[in-house]
Amino acid sequence: MRKEKETLPGPTPELPIVVLDALRPTTQRMVINRRGSMVWEVGSRWGHYAVKVGHPVEATADWPAQPWTALAPAREGAVLLRLGVHDIAYGEWEQGTWNFQPWHQGPDLYRLWERCRQKDSPTTPDTSEALECAEALAELHAKGWAHGDVQPAHFIIGPERTHLIDLALAHGGGHVPEGYDFPFRGCLVHYEAPEIARSVLDTGEAEPTQAADVYALGASLLISATGWRAVEYPDDARRPVQREAVANGRRRPVKIPGELGELVDAMLSHAPGDRPTIYEVVKGLS
Ligand SMILES: Nc1ncnc2c1ncn2[C@@H]1O[C@H](COP(=O)(O)OP(=O)(O)O)[C@@H](O)[C@H]1O
Ligand SMILES: [Mg+2]
Q1: Which of 32, 87, 181, 253: CA 20 to 30 A from 232?
Q2: Average pLDDT score, the chain
Q3: Domain hosting residue 90, numbered range
Q4: How far is CA 20 from the centre of its chain?
């Protein structure tokens, strides 16, 4: 799996003044600064927070303008509020929107399963850790939402429980203020279900669904356990070429041993109706 570049060149940006005013940080560390999105880890007398700040992405020769990245933090804030998450806030700054939310300590799924991917004597993936990820997604589905952007980096395996983060693209469970809403245009292609990839190719947009989330969880477990993408395409393939391969179902065989492997294989079924529900996945892993 190639890692997206996490920092951009240039001077280190600062937290917007509205956020400084709201949190009065005692410590702050920039976690990522990539196209359209910045994340800080912030300590303050009120708690330990992740601060997300969005701004628009200008068009270049390589990609079209993406004005929606400016809205993503507020959209996520609205979803978190609907979900009843405590200790969050969101708002606007000069260039876009921001939110803060509780910081979750722990490795993500990809890092947690690093030892499963080592060449010499790899360990087998821990089914109870896979179960925790499935439970986090099941909790969201039970509230009527589809996440839309399930990927290994979005599962944080904490000491007490596993958290599913980055709800900026979640749909279906409740109202999102119109001013902060934007259409779903797909996610990281490695985790995109075939029907999502097809719809994005045909119309530029798609409908996030719980069945597509189950596919994405299957692809996340597979890549974290083995290093292999669910679908075969060259590393340097352009995004539409990747989506074509996904939509046409050029699946790789799932090489995870045992019941976990069988379950992941079913989760990666081409037809959404052939995939287990997240509750069936939880049951299968329990
Ligand atoms: N609540 C959180 N707790 C801990 N880390 C977080 C949290 N939110 C974001 N992060 C860190 O920042 C990274 C990017 O956050 P994410 O929500 O995925 O934003 P983006 O919209 O840029 O993809 C995550 O992979 C994680 O490392
Ligand atoms: Mg993300």
Answers
A1: 32
A2: 94
A3: 17-102
A4: 26
